[in-house]
Amino acid sequence: MKTTPTPRLRHRSTGLVVLTVVLVIGVFVSIAVGTRDISLATTWQAVFAFDPTNSEHLLVVHQRIPRALLGVVVGIALGVAGTIMQALTRNPLAEPGLLGVNAGAMTAIAAGIAFFGITNPSGYMWLGILGAGIAGAVVYLLGGVRTGTNPVRLVLAGAALTVVLMALTQIMLVNSLDNVFDRYRHWMVGSLAGRGADVLLAVGVLTAVGLVAAYALARPLDSAMLGEDLSRSLGANPTRIWALAGLVVIVLAGAATAAAGPITFLGLAAPHLARLLVGVDHRWVLPYAGLLAAVLIVVADALGRIIPQNGEVGVGIMVAILGGPFFVMLVRRRRMVRL
User: Fold this and answer.
1) Which residues form the domain of 221?
2) For the segment 242-261, what is each residue's pLDDT rounded down to a tens digit?
């Protein structure tokens, strides 16, 4: 028997299509703008009728497209990771950095630059993932997730480890040469520049794996938001949900941070915007948060290349400039959906 979609289902599905179309338009605009503007017609031809003798086509295919797609992947990863963190901790101010992921990646990359002279973005990528994974594992052990779920204990463990790792990073940078500090500074502000197809492929694969696991956890996350007792009464295993969801956050946020640097605002704001549009059902919140975060980072990266007369502003800075006032407006109007 064929069933008819409800109006709510149609509206939510239409919203996903609209967000996807907006994201595709944003990607094309992002590809077209920069220190050397390229028309949308040329951008279209470079994608669908590539001419290897055309310098603009080469620029589009080898630099602009990987950069724009990396922004999409990083945005989706951070948006979904932030949604999971807020559901697990039932804290509207939670974001992926609470698990020490960002600090772990920062420390590993600073050590790689200072002690091993690594300057390639692909090298940063793997160092960052390694550091984020180790930091996440340490927080998992210190937070005692194996013996029960306690959001406060886990957040405190993440905050404490972050302080320690930040101190270690500062010690390494203070005792390093100026060029080491400069290289670290370029990564620290958050940027998509100079990342090639190798970085895009690596972070894309990890993000795809993380997204599949995240969507499989959508229903368990709904029960986790009810608290440990209610969750158990519904037949869920809170400890297992915490362990699996924490691993997904480490993979998504670790890969994104390693590739683009610490971009802190997306994981905080995108889940709130998503819940404002579709409520608290994580089967819808997760894809909406990912797409909203991707749109924001692509637009921020494009504006960061348009607004300055010379050079460009890092995407991490532009995301904060664009998203901060909008998020404050939501809070002041009390339109945030309570967890």
Assistant:
1) 9-332
2) 888 888 988 898 889 888 88
